Each structure stands twice: as C-alpha cells, then as structure tokens.
Known about the structure:
Elements: H1 2-26, H2 29-89, H3 92-117, H4 122-125, H5 128-158, H6 177-200
Helix pairs in contact: 1-2
Amino acid sequence: MLEKRENLLAKKIASELDKARALSRQGNKRSALQCLKRKKLYEQQIESLAQHQLKLQEQVIMLEGSKATAETFGALRSGAGAMKQLAKETNVEDVDATMDMINEQTDKMRQVQEALGQPMGLAAEIDEDELEEELAELDALDVEDKLLERELEGELEGTTMPSVPLPTVPIAPQKSPRKSSALDADEDAELKALQREMELL
C-alpha cells in the first residue's frame, strides 16, 4: 500500500512540475509557484513514506530473526530432550561392564592365537639354540673353505707345471648298437622284476 501511495505521489509531482513549466511560459508566475509548493509537499510525503517503509522492513527483518531464533531454540530443546532420554537408557555401569567383557574376550582370543602359534610334535623338541650354533659352525666352515681355495689358487699360480709327455691311452672298441640295446632291455626287465618283488613285500 505504501509503495502504491509513493507511485501516486510521484505522478502528482511530475504533473505539478509540468503545470509549473506551462504557467511559467504563460507568464503566470504566481500559479507556477503554487504548483511548485504542492510539488514540495508531495516530495515531503514521499520522504515520510520512505521512512515508514524502512521501519516496516526493519520490523520484518526482526521478525524473521526472531523466527529463526525460536526455531533454533526448539531444535536445541529437542536435542537436549533426546540426550536426556539417551542418558536415561545408557547406564555408566553397563558401559563399564560391556567394556570389561570386550577386553576379557580380546585377551582370551589373544591367548588362543598364541597357543595355536606354538610349535608342536617334533618341531617343539628342536632346540633353537642348537640350530643357531650349528648354523654358525656351517658359516665358519664356509669361510675356511673359501680361504683354502684362495691359498690353493695362489700356490698354483706361483708354480709352473713341467712339460712332461702324456702317455697315450688306448681307445676301447665301440659296441655295436644291437648289443647295447639288448643289454638295456635286460636291465629294464631286471628293474621291473625287482619292482614287482618290492610291491609284494
């Protein structure tokens, strides 16, 4: 309503201004001044309407803020009620008892896992210290073997072998493939017979 009133006053101001110009052109100065006075009054009313609109806008902003505050308070009150209800349903002693039970079950499971991880049978009788000593002895033997190899290589490099003619070795006559195949067949037959005897045992 205030905006409509402001628009109407703006139209009246424009009309009075047009009248004042027309009367001034006609030389009617007194009537032109009256039009300008009415224009000033309309302008004052527009300023007053602007102040009213500003106050109303401030009121709207305050109402919106109050509504948001009320909604926030309602949410906080609902949250406090929910927390109070949860506190009633949750007992500190029950929580402690549950945590103790969880810790106890965890310890039992850890003990079971440790028991399953222990060696059993012949593996449990083996002494780890003896195995460590045996491994150390093997490492020492390897070191000694490497040192002996190096010493032998050094001695061989320092000495030169005399050139002695090697004796000729007679070459054995090669067997015919027929005879060797017959021997292989006999060996296979003997192996099969031996396997049959072992199966009977």
